[in-house]
Write a structure and sequence with these properties.
With 75 residues, the protein is mainly α. The chain is built from three helices and no strands.
C-alpha cells in the first residue's frame, strides 16, 4: 500500500500529461478538418495529417496503457 501511495502524485501527473497530449492532438485534428471544410487546405494533405495524428493517438494510448499496467505490477 505504501508503494502505491508513494507513486500516487507521480502517476496522476503522468496521466494528466497523457490527457493533455490526447486533447492537443484531437484539437489539431479538429482544426485541420475545419480548415479543409472551409477550402483552405487540400484533401490529400488533410487526409495524411489526420491519419498521422490518429496513428500518433493510437501509439500514445498503447504507451499509456502499458505504463498503467507496469505500475500496477510493481506493487
Amino acid at each position: 500500500m505504501d508503494c502505491k501511495h508513494g507513486l500516487n502524485q507521480y502517476r496522476l501527473s503522468r496521466a494528466k500529461s497523457y490527457t493533455q497530449l490526447f486533447m492537443e492532438t484531437l484539437s489539431n485534428i479538429k482544426l485541420m478538418y475545419q480548415m479543409y471544410s472551409e477550402g483552405l487546405i487540400d484533401n490529400d494533405i488533410t487526409e495524411r495529417y489526420i491519419t498521422c495524428n490518429i496513428n500518433e493517438l493510437d501509439r500514445n494510448w498503447e504507451d499509456f496503457k502499458g505504463y498503467i499496467e507496469q505500475r500496477d505490477d510493481m506493487c
